[in-house]
Fold this protein.
Amino acid sequence: MQRRLGDETQTGSITIIKNYDDPLPEVGCYASLLNQVFMNLIINAIDAIDRRRKELGEGLRGKIFIKTKLVSKDAILITVEDNGTGMDYKTKAMVFDPLFTTKPVGKGAGMGLTTSYQIVVENHGGDLSCDSIPGKGTVFNINLLVKMNSMLPKSG
Ligand SMILES: Nc1ncnc2c1ncn2[C@@H]1O[C@H](COP(=O)(O)OP(=O)(O)OP(=O)(O)O)[C@@H](O)[C@H]1O
Ligand SMILES: [Mg+2]
């Protein structure tokens, strides 16, 4: 994903802006599970931008920011931010609930964020949270501990 996207990439009419401002330590993680989390967050961001475009009547430059930050010696923060619809406080309160979706029938299962929360919190001992301003956008925060490393079973 990282290699395919480069630093700033046009995908359709959405720009993905990556900002990995700190050299990160190697974080022990279940990479394929965390990739599912990133995919869920990015797909949700694209959906939110598409919906915002429809609200506004097309005149929006869609942007998704992906940032990583070393917040202390042993903790990192990854954020995925979009300038889509944003969410009101009622929606925000339910985003991690199983089967909660605002998408049309047949489009969203309402499981992407439930699964993502499980992966971050239960499989990695981290935290997943979000902040949003209706009409402005949304940011999801993935907090992970670097020391996950020593918690993982040795492979091979
Ligand atoms: N970036 C976002 N901007 C605005 N609303 C969002 C965003 N991410 C999630 N939501 C809201 O949270 C709901 C739940 O998201 P979730 O990913 O769990 O399910 P879904 O996208 O509806 O379905 P799927 O199971 O296909 O992921 C969405 O339907 C949407 O209302
Ligand atoms: Mg989703």
About this structure: The chain has a mean pLDDT of 87.
